[in-house]
Amino acid sequence: MNNLWTRNTKRIVLSIACIVVVVSILWIFDFIFPKSRQFLVPHRLIQAYQNSHGKINVSDSHLIRSWMTFGYINNLFKLPPDFLKGKLSINDAGYPQISIRNLAKSDHLDENTLLSSVQQVVGDYSK
């Protein structure tokens, strides 16, 4: 019994030590490379694109991703609030707060096809 307790105690202590080491390494990495996190945040990618290419316009519709809501897209590309709703025949009550991904799921559509349609409609705006 004493031997079993010692083995279990060793495993617990070793597990805790491993967790502490991993957390410490992550903390040190975050301290040394604080800007590396920005590429994990999708909005920062858009900001980085704007910083390097200037103001975003409809010709940049390739930037649209399925995580984006229609409201975000309308705002980003300066579209009228119901433009995409009308062009894509969106009847979801969640518009414009619903994302492309969630609309595709709820309407049983292929996400990539819907994404391409949104990109095309935005790219064709005011042509």
List the helices and strands and how they pair.
Elements: H1 2-32, H2 42-53, H3 70-76, H4 83-87, H5 100-106, H6 111-124
Structure description:
This protein has 127 residues and is mainly α. It contains six helices and no strands. The radius of gyration is 23 Å and the shape is elongated. It has two domains: 2-32; 38-124, no CATH class. The mean pLDDT is 82. It has helices at 2-32, 42-53, 70-76, 83-87, 100-106, 111-124. The relative contact order is 0.10. Helices cover 60% and strands 0% of the residues.
Order of helices and strands: HHHHHH
- Mean pLDDT, nearest integer? 82
Q: Tell me the Rg in angstroms.
A: 23 Å
Please work out how many helical segments DSSP would assign: 6
Q: Helix content range of the residues, please?
A: 55-70%
Distance between the termini: 80 Å
Which stretches are low in confidence, meaning pLDDT under 50 for 5 or more residues running? none
Task: Provide tags for this entry.
2 domains; 127 residues; mainly alpha
Question: What's a quick, concise take on this entry?
Answer:
By secondary structure, this protein is mainly α. The protein is built from 6 helices and no strands.
